Amino acid sequence: MPPSNLNTSSLGSSFIDLSTSPSPGNDTFTFADLDGMDPKKQLKALRNQLVLENRIKEGAENLLHMQLGDSLRLKVETELDTAKTKIDAILKRIDIQSSRSKSKPPNNAIKQQPWKNTTGTHVVSVPSGSIQILNNKGGEDFRVALQNASQNLKTLESLSHPQPPSLPLAPTPSSSFPALTADSLDSNQQRVEIMNQLIDILRRHLRVRYELNVIELVQAVAPGLAESCSKRCRAVSYRLIRHALVDADSVKRLGDTLDWYIVKSLNRDNKHTIEKEQVIKLIRTIIEIGTTHQDSSGTSGVGTVPLSEPIMRALVAVAEHAEDPFRPICTQTLTEILLIDTDLVARTGGMRFLLHVLGEGPVEITSILASAFLHIADAPRTRAYLRVGADLEMALSAVTDAYGKGTDHADRMRGCAKVVQLMLRTWSGLMYFCMDDMRAIRSLVDTLRIPSLETREIILDMFFDLLNIKTPQWYQTFIDGRRLTMYHKPKSNLESIHEPEIPERNNHTLKLTDQYLALLVVIFNNAGLCDALTSMLEESTTGSALSRKATLLMAEVLQMGNRVLPLSVAADVQAIPRVFGMATDYKDGEHRIVGTSALSAIDSFNRNRARLEPCTARQSRPRANSVEDAVRRGQRQVEQVKLKMGMQMDDKTFQSQLLETQVMLTKDHNKWNFETLHELIEGPLLNPKRMEEAIKVSRFIRRLMSFFHPFNHRFSDMLRNKANARWVRLGNSLLTTLMASQDGVRYLSSDDPFLTQIVRSFAQLDPFNGVPDSDPIFSKRRVADTLTFGYLEMLGTLSKHKEGIELLEKFKVFTAFYHLSELRGREDLIKGIIDNLDYNIDGHPRIVLSKALTSSYKHIRMYATHHLGELIRGYTNTNAWTLRLLLTQLYDPAPEVCKLAVDFLEEACESKEILQLVVEMQPTMDHLGEIGHPLLLKFMSTPMGFRYLYDAGYIDREMDMWFHERNIYYVVQVEVFLTKVFSNTSSVDNDDEVSAFDGTVPPHFYGEMSKTELGCQILQEKGHFTEFSQFIRQHSHESEDMELIMKLKSILWAVGNVGATEGGLPFLEEEEIIPAVLEIAENSPLPSVRGTCFFVLGLISSTTQGAEILDDYHWEATLSPLGTPTGLCIPVDVEKFVSVYPLVDATCPERKSPRLIPSSIETEMEVITAIQNLANTVIANAASRSLARMKSRPEYRAVFTSPSMFFRALHIISTQRYRLPVRRYILDLFNLELCPEVVTTLLECSKSLTAHPSYKPSTTEANRLSMFGRLGRTRRPSESDEDEDDELDTSNAQHGFMNDLPIISLQPVSRIVGFPL
User: Fold this and answer.
1) Mind listing the pLDDT tens digit for each residue in 424-465?
2) CA proximity to 276, closest of 222, 250, 314, 306
3) Phi, psi for 768 (deg, rounded to 5)
């Protein structure tokens, strides 16, 4: 995974360098160039070009794995497509040429090509065929690939003849990298080509990786890692080793042969990006493949990552260096290792660095780090590495240390607030921060008490988010100090009357999120949140936006406490004694103003909350005692009076109204009086006498209907916009009025061509009706842009009346609908027909809907199924025909349609009547698999449904599956969904799943089973619950085996769901399992298991009897105003529940790095001391100057060319913390180049210089040197760090009395501060 801040252009060139090589003469290759050439030469040219195109393809594919800009990605994709096309063409041409060849030369007859090695003195014969191996993916089988790979390895070995160790006796230039000669460049190029071909073979033939010997491959590749090779050669070498690793055994065989190469590569600067990238990829591959766990359970943090301490120190140094482009990926790698092998990260200093990143940023990775630390804090074995009050509390530093840092610190505080929110929404984080008397949470709350802190609003927002308090728009009005009564006027009464009221799904009170929020409210209240908010109110008597926001938060906390807390606990939260005390303080006027203002604001907030917030669930009918009832009654009376007056209109007035509409005078609809026309249609024309007069005498209806005729192109050509939508409503009203009288029905049936033209318009779309019209009335453009769509609404208006359906049948409009349903590409018409038809009357409309439900096009079936679900949702009574159609959709061939039907059916089955009706239909749902499980679980909750499923064999089969598998899946599902609900992130990857869950307890098989008497009987016979109780008692304090922990959680959820029903609670009482669950909740060493018990106890409190049992154990349930349990339960002693004692219940293993036998040479000891002093930032500058002077002196020349001293330096930087530039400086001091010979010498030094564990240094060796320089001599007053040249010439005459002097001789200074007594 490349780091996010990596330079794309440089990395892209690096990939190209890895996969391509210059090919002279092949800049522009065409098949025309082959004409006239010898067949063998043609094959050779084709193969050369094939190799080149494959490299281009490989480089393009590597580039596409990176983060590229849109334009650059398009170019790379174009080059990739071109390369693929060329490869296909070349392969075809090669096949043609090969078929023409009559014979092939044997493998051993390949022409030998002389090459020179890097020294230029030895000549080796390398088979030319090994350089240009045919890269034919279609024709190369495993044997050929293995033979080619072995041949390439032999070629690499032939290029790696032993060379004398690079141990120069004279000082080299300051640069430690020698100039590459022409011969070495040629050798590097040859080595890169061979390794690239070998990589290509390993990528295409995975089986070859298992056949190759990793030791031999590393020995052949190791010379390519030497410093004498180019960075490109080293990068390809690392890449080849990475592709050769297949399993943990192959990683184990590597041993420590590559350690010093990797350390050196990681310490290089940014000019070697290509090399560092490949070595980091190799490290990540080693972690992925070579990691082993100590036990089969896979307990986190106790695995073994096969990385040595030198590599880990080097990786930490890269991650600590802010300017290194690979810092993000190294930090992520260390985080992954932390989860696998916590001891390795802690031992090599990675834990300290990761905690620093957690507190300081960058923000992009802090959430990942927080999750990782919370994960290791959950298990006793791994949380032993954390120190309470010092480690995870660093995540709060941006908030707790914000005083005095100004508004520039705001962005960092917002990032810290998100991390705090993440940590406090996990059980391990909440319980960790509640330790030590909630010191961490109190420090967060106390930041609200600092009057001069300008960024306190960020902290308030953090508490809003933590408590899941949504902030609607009217909150800003409250914060600005304006009256809430002037904001957000209720919706107009006209809209509220005409809006269709669709009952939504009934929301349950059983919400896991509410139970966790109840615990948070109690914890924050105990930590002094309300008291801190009161302190903010005291800062000003006039009030400010910040104080009003604090008042708002206090009001929300009080409101939430009233909703989710038990009465006794809620009373303590809602007491707010300081506010009431200030409001009744008649001695201090300012206090009284603040107190009364706060109470008034809270009261105003509560009074206006119900008015300003939309209802969570709409009611099926308007309330009779609501505020708007009088308005509704008044409007109904006005409409009835208007209708009565219109019906009683005299002839003269009626004729004048007809003329006033202007319909009789002009055909221009723009001159018509629309208001008068609308009142006339919905008033007087409802009188049959007036309708007859308008049809026969004045011909008013004829002229009006001609406006709506499609072929008159008046109504049908009007643009579709908001202003013209009124003419569609007018047409619907006109047809409704016509259907109200016999004369109107007769007129539409025999005298008016409206329906005839509609059918002809539909016929224009039928391909079987001859030549189609160039611009049909119902073309896709006209339906989208004109009022033609209104004809579908008018036909839907006719379908609402029995007479209208008869008219539609007479004019064969339904036949036209059936034909339209088969048209490809006209889903707009089909959707419009489905939406507008009325299905209350049994007949053709329902057949049209059923035909759409079984359409051959999936998107039509999806739309029709969704519309059917909306119909079921909108009906107040139960309709069997809609349920039958919806059950038919369960057998749709498309899984998406089945899933949609199951969702709507599950929602409809919330009603007991509908559930009973569906069960009576006895649908078969075995074919649905996982999709149908929620619906089947609902069937189980009724006696008839349970009996039906039991007879079908579903209960026995599913019961065994839940007992062995599905219980575990249920735990994963609940925990993942809870994490998503609490995360509150902006990502929308799985929003559908989150909205489907929404914190409500998902149905559980055992819970649904215990709702019926037969289900309880079968549960008793199976004996599963007895096994559950035995497992809980046996493994109640399990903290190591993850499999047992997951099974324990799954059984706890099963027990909780059974106990949540009236019929299942006796099982818990019989087994006496509730005390065992309470014991786990209060004493389990795993916070996550405690949290599971917390939710399970909430489920048990769902029944009145369960709440009473828990009350005896001092767990109090929340009751509704009617006294029924809500399924929320919290402990009376919250501190006992959230305290994890002891935190460190596992001994942190101490592993000391192996010590080296001290050197006895004075010059070496001085160099070692100076190198060690570089780790101390106080004296690092003096130590670096000393090292520079030492290197320039001839007597120290042998020290900086000694392999043993080089090993001592490597050992020092591999066991202590050094910054990356310092590590680079130390390695550059030595005039040694890493090569196989030097690495071998270093490995020998590690064996010879490493002291035995029982070795104890003598007193002379222990006191010889210190971090302050040479001991046993005093510093002259005039002596300074610049005079250290003289120190190097000083004789060792003082060594005689060095042993008698202490290392440090300092006398403590005693001072008296203040007044002496």
Assistant:
1) 888 888 888 888 888 888 888 888 888 877 778 888 888 888
2) 314
3) -90, 5
